[in-house]
């Protein structure tokens, strides 16, 4: 039987489905009879409930289920026969008029668009690379030392300086009035590490134990505390304690404390280099992939199925709400979230997904088993027990799907770079890390 497909727009289509009323009735009767064998009702033994009671109680819901099942199958068969790639879930509406003995339904839906990818050879894409230098290793070792530093109290005559840990009492007022969060006793922070606003950090430098100071502080306009953002406060600070940082020497004891079996400085630097190279590879790959995806969006032409964009926007809203809940936000389930704010991101993600899928199909860029294995091995090497991590990934379908998506994106990135005009750029290590 031929399928009549109406075009309602660029992507919107409609198919009319008809079902024999007698077949629906017979299926409803059959399901109610099966249900009667186990249904319970007051005044009747199980399996002895009269069919009239079963029909009265469950007839409507069973009929609804049967019609849904039959319409769903009829739509699937019709779409398959017409060779349609349906995007999203069809909207089903029963028609008032139908041939005698038939039920008729209109299925309105969207189809996947034709994706036209332009000439990649005319597109220039910047491809970055970064080298892990000895200076980067030196800085990382210093970070490891700071993470294991101890503090010794300075003599009372010495003022607080860079890298010192200070303990202070403070109270802030705006227009002479205290404000929430503006007062603390025995508060600790380390000078020069960005834990406090720059004006506050600078004001305590040079202060000695027992000394007090009053100074003005201008809160930034975008300060996270909205009640004080953009306002000027006067702070009274009293220095209670000043402690100087003591960094451990880079020796065998220090290396051993990091869990490196071969407790030598050379082994430490080799371990740091391996970790940095893994991180650099990840960040360089992410940056180059982003450049490729931007280029694809510029050369691709396609219409966006509204159903897919709506679904993606809802996923982003749900993700934002879940994030609020995880952060402990009260009533996260009912916090108003403007869906329209996610519209551009949803459109971009759907557009990219369709373009990437088209390229993968046309050029057989699916993830191969050896690529999946290699990617999981790379991930596992940054953990203490790589074999356990590999088993975790290989035994989890969702994790494997995530890995497959990453590998496919890498395949597409390499494919596009092989076709485009590539401008190679050596990016300094610090710039790469700062950008991320």
Architecture overview:
- The chain is α+β, with helices and mostly antiparallel strands and 436 residues long.
- It has three domains: 5-111, 2-Layer Sandwich (Alpha-Beta Plaits); 150-246, Chitinase A, domain 3; 262-303 and 338-435, Orthogonal Bundle (Trigger factor, domain 2), CATH 1.10.3120.
- It has helices at 21-36, 51-81, 134-147, 198-204, 252-257, 265-299, 306-326, 343-363, 369-380, 386-394, 397-419, 429-435; strands at residues 5-7, 12-20, 86-94, 102-111, 116-117, 124-129, 150-153, 165-174, 177-190, 212-218, 232-246, 300-301, 421-426.
- The strands form four sheets. Strands 7, 8, 9, 10 and 11 form a five-stranded antiparallel sheet that branches. The protein has a four-stranded antiparallel sheet with strand order 1-2-4-3, sandwiched between helices.
- The chain is extended and about 100 Å long.
- The two termini are 58 Å apart.
- The model has no long low-confidence stretch (mean pLDDT 92).
Task: Give me the secondary-structure topology.
Blueprint: E1 5-7, E2 12-20, H1 21-36, H2 51-81, E3 86-94, E4 102-111, E5 116-117, E6 124-129, H3 134-147, E7 150-153, E8 165-174, E9 177-190, H4 198-204, E10 212-218, E11 232-246, H5 252-257, H6 265-299, E12 300-301, H7 306-326, H8 343-363, H9 369-380, H10 386-394, H11 397-419, E13 421-426, H12 429-435
Parallel strand pairs: 6-13
Antiparallel strand pairs: 1-2, 2-4, 3-4, 5-12, 7-11, 8-9, 8-11, 10-11
């Amino acid at each position: 039987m031929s399928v009549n497909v109406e075009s309602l727009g660029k992507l919107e289509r409609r198919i009319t489905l008809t079902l024999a009323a007698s077949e629906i009735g017979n299926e409803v009767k059959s399901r109610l009879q099966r249900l009667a064998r186990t249904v319970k009702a007051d005044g009747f033994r199980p399996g002895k409930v009269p069919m009239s009671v079963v029909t009265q109680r469950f007839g409507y819901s069973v009929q609804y289920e049967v019609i849904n099942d039959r319409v769903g199958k009829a739509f699937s068969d019709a779409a398959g026969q017409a060779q349609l790639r349906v995007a999203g879930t069809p909207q089903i509406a029963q028609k008032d008029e139908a041939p005698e003995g038939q039920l008729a339904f209109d299925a309105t839906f969207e189809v996947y668009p034709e994706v036209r990818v332009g000439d990649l050879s005319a597109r220039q894409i910047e491809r970055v690379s970064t080298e892990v230098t000895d200076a980067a290793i030196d800085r990382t070792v210093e970070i490891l030392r700071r993470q294991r530093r101890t503090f010794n109290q300075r003599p009372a005559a010495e003022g607080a300086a860079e890298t010192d840990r200070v303990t202070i009492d403070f109270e802030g007022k705006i227009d002479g009035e205290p404000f929430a969060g503006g007062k603390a006793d025995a508060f600790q922070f380390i000078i020069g590490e960005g834990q406090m606003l720059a004006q506050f950090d600078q004001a305590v430098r040079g202060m000695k134990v027992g000394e007090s100071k009053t100074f003005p502080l201008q809160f930034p306009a975008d300060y996270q505390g909205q009640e004080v953002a953009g306002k000027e406060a006067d702070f009274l600070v009293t220095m209670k304690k000043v402690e100087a940082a003591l960094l451990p020497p880079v020796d065998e004891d220090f290396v051993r404390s990091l869990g490196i079996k071969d407790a030598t400085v050379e082994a430490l630097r080799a371990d740091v280099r391996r970790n940095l190279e893994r991180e650099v590879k990840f960040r360089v790959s992410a940056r180059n992939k982003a450049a490729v995806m931007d280029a694809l969006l510029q050369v691709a032409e396609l219409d966006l199925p509204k159903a897919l964009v709506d679904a993606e926007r809802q996923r982003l809203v749900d993700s934002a709400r879940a994030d609020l809940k995880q952060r402990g936000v009260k009533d996260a389930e009912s916090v108003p979230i403007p869906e329209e704010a996610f519209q551009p991101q949803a459109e971009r993600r759907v557009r990219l997904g369709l373009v990437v899928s088209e390229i993968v199909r046309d050029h057989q860029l699916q993830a191969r088993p050896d690529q999946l294995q290699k990617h999981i091995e790379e991930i596992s090497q940054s953990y203490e027990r790589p074999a356990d991590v590999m088993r975790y990934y290989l035994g989890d379908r969702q994790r494997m799907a995530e890995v497959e998506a990453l590998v496919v994106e890498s395949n597409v990135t390499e494919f596009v770079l092989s076709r485009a005009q590539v401008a190679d750029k050596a990016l300094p290590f610090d710039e790469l890390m700062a950008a991320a």
